[in-house]
Write a structure and sequence with these properties.
There is one protein chain. By secondary structure, this protein is mostly beta strands. It has one helix and 14 strands; from the N terminus they run βββββαβββββββββ. It has one domain: Beta Barrel (Lipocalin). The strands form two sheets. It has a ten-stranded antiparallel barrel. Strand 9 and strand 10 form a beta hairpin. The N terminus is likely disordered. InterPro entries: OMP/PagP_B-barrel.
Length: about 260
């Protein structure tokens, strides 16, 4: 997040006296400049391509998951992600939004079912409250308190050999508390590094979850920057017949616009 640095032009204009011959002139009224607003706003669309490893299960059937980035891209129908933030002074609120829709067809080759299809949607919404705990000329660090909303939608269609089909679907959604830190270090002119580290769950819904990102950015101008890095996200959640103990990780690239 890029916070506007406020400078107050002190009363350097307040002491202007003029003279004409020996006749004193009334001093001018001091000019007091109104400080600029310390509100700041940001939007950061990003693209995150992931591999997925771990264990997933539904309806009492559990299996290992090991999908490469290429596997995920082959099954990806649509994805959208971004961060929106608003702040004043050292305080800020932000929301990280992530949506992905995947689908895949498969052959069953049995006497009853010939083939099938899986449709999967994932929505992650992570609102946060941040406070700038450290702020120097080249470095800033926020501490964060937030939550993550997870929604997974799964649909399975199996087609009979003799025509017709059967469909099954289910939805699992839950909230988890999160705590974390994020920071930015300008290390060489327009170049900077940004990081984000977060943990949560604590048995509220998930037993444990984490999120981490490290990237290198370049400031194009005062309001726009481009950043690339690597992000990982893990969750350990189970509720009745549903299990999700997986890690998503992969390269991330995006833009940062701040005002």
């Amino acid at each position: 997040m890029k916070t506007t640095t406020l400078t107050l032009a002190a009363a350097l204009i307040c002491c202007g006296f003029a003279t004409a011959g020996t006749t004193p002139v009334e001093p001018k009224a001091p000019i007091i400049e109104e400080p600029a607003s310390d509100w700041h706003f940001g939007i950061s669309p990003y693209l995150w391509t992931t591999a997925v490893t771990g264990t997933m299960g539904v309806g009492g059937v559990t299996g290992d998951v090991d999908m490469s980035i290429r596997d995920v891209l082959d099954q990806l129908d649509f994805a959208a992600a971004g961060v929106v933030s608003l702040g004043k002074g050292k305080w800020s609120i932000s929301t990280d939004l992530f949506y992905a829709k995947l689908s895949d067809g498969f052959d069953l080759g049995g006497l009853i079912f010939k083939n099938g299809r899986i449709d999967y949607k994932q929505i992650l919404v992570t609102p946060r409250i941040g406070y700038t705990a450290v702020a120097t000329e080249n470095y800033m660090m926020d501490v964060m308190l937030g939550a993550r909303y997870t929604r997974n939608e799964l649909g399975i269609t199996a087609r009979f050999v003799r025509g017709g089909q059967v469909e099954r679907s289910g939805t699992e959604d839950f909230w988890d508390p999160t705590i974390g830190v994020r920071g930015k270090w300008n290390f060489n002119g327009p170049w900077y590094t940004r990081y984000n580290a977060e943990i949560g769950g604590f048995g509220v819904s998930s037993d444990f979850l984490w999120n981490a990102m490290l990237g290198i950015g370049y400031e194009i101008n005062d309001t726009a920057a481009v950043i690339a890095g690597y992000r990982g996200l893990g969750v350990d959640y189970s509720d009745g017949s549903y299990t999700n103990d997986t890690i998503m990780h992969g390269p991330i690239v995006g833009f940062e616009f701040t005002w």
